[in-house]
Design goal:
Elements (H helix, E strand, L loop, with lengths): L4 H7 L2 H14 L2 H4 L3 H8 L3 H29 L1 H22 L3 H11 L2 H13 L7 H12 L6 H11 L1 H26 L4 H9 L5 H5 L2 H9 L2 H31 L7 H23 L5 H20 L7 H30 L5 H29 L3 H22 L10
Helix pairs in contact: 2-8, 2-9, 2-11, 5-6, 5-7, 5-8, 5-12, 5-19, 6-7, 6-8, 6-11, 8-19, 9-16, 9-18, 10-11, 10-16, 15-18, 15-19, 15-20, 16-18, 17-18, 17-20
Amino acid sequence: MTNSLWSTLLKLKGNTRACIYTEPLWGLSMNLCMPYLSVYMLGIGLNDTRVGFIVTINTLSQLIFSFLSGPITDKIGRRKATACFDVLAWLIPALIWWRAENFWFFLTAGIINGTNGVTANSWNCLAVEDADKKQITRIYSLAMACGQLSAVFAPITSILISRLTLVPAIRILFVNGFILMAAKVIILFLASKETSIGIMRIHETKGKNIFQLAGGYGGVIKIILHSRGMVFSMIIAALAGIIGMINNTFWQIIANKKLMVPETILPLFMVFRSILAIIFLFFVIPKFSRGILKIPLLLGFASYFLGQSLLIMVPVEGMLKYPLLCLSLVFDGFGLGTISMLSESLIALHVNPTERARIMAIRFMLIMGATAPFGWIGGILSDISRNLPFALNLALLSFGIIITVYHYHHKDADHSAEQ
C-alpha cells in the first residue's frame, strides 16, 4: 500500500492536493462534453472538413497563448493565471457551445477556448513545483485518472440522447459543464496558494511587461536544446498531442458514421474507455513506470498501434463490431494512458526548475505548432475515407517507436533524471 497510487493520493499536501482533489470536477464538467463535440458539430450541420478546420484554428489559438503563457504565469502567478484563464478558456466557450447554431459559433468558441494554453502551463506549475520530484509520475497518473471520472455520468448522457436526441442532450451537458467548472475554479483558487518559485518569479518580473518577458525566450530555447532529455520529451509530447487530438476528434465520427453505432450507445463506449483508463492508471501503468522509461514508452506506442489497427479493421456489418470496438479501446486505453502520462512526466523530470514556466510555455507552443495542421488534415482525410485519420496515426505511432529506440540507444543519452 505504501508505494501505491492510493497511498500517494491520501498523502498529497498543499497545492498538489488542491489541484488533484479538484480535478474530478474537470472530469464531470468539460471532459464530459468535449468527447462529443465533433458529433455535436456534425449534428448542427457542419461537415468533416469544417470540424477539422475548427480544431486547427483552436490549436493555433492555443499556440499563441502557449507562447504568452510563460510570461503571464510568471507575471501574475500560477494561482491567479489558472483561475483567470480557466474562466476565459472554459466558462465562456461553454455558454457559446450551449447556444451554438452554426459554424461561426463553433469557430468563436474554438478561438476563445485556445486561451487554455495559459492554464495548461500555470496548472502544471501549481501542481508540481512544490511537490517531491519522486512523486511526479504518480501525480500525473492521478490527474489523468481523475479527469476520466466523466464515466460516472456517461450512462446519463446515453439516456439524455435516447430521450432528447443528440443536439439537445449535448446542450444540457454544456450547461452542466459550466456549473461544475465554475465550482472547480472557485474551490481551487481558495484551496491553493502561490508556489515558492511563483513568488520568486513575480518579484523578478515586477516592472516588466508581458512582451519584454517573452523576449527572453532565446536563452530558454538554448537551455532546452542543450538537454537531450528535454528535446526527446518534447518530441514524445508532440506525438502524444497529435495522435490524441486525431483520435478524440474522429473516433466518434468513425464509430457513428462508418460503423453505424447508434448515438445512444456512443456514451457507453466512453464509459468503457474511462473505466479502462482509471484501471490502467491506478493498477497497471505504475508497475511499468519505474526507473528508465524506455520499456513503458515502447509498450504504450505498440499497444496504441494495435488499438488503432483494430479500429480500422472493424467490419461495418454484424454484431462482431461491438466486441472488436471494445478490444480496440482496451489497447487504446493502455497506449493513450501510458504515452500521455509519460510525456508529461518526462518533461517534468528533465525541466530546469527555475525556468519551469517559460520552458513549459515553449513546450506547449511547440506541441500546438506541431499539432495545428493535423486537425484540418484529419478532416480532409476523413471526408475521403473515415479510416484515413487513423492510418495517419499508425504512421505517427511507428515514428514514436523509432525515435524512442534511437534515444535510449544513443551513446550520449543521459537517463539519470528518470532513475
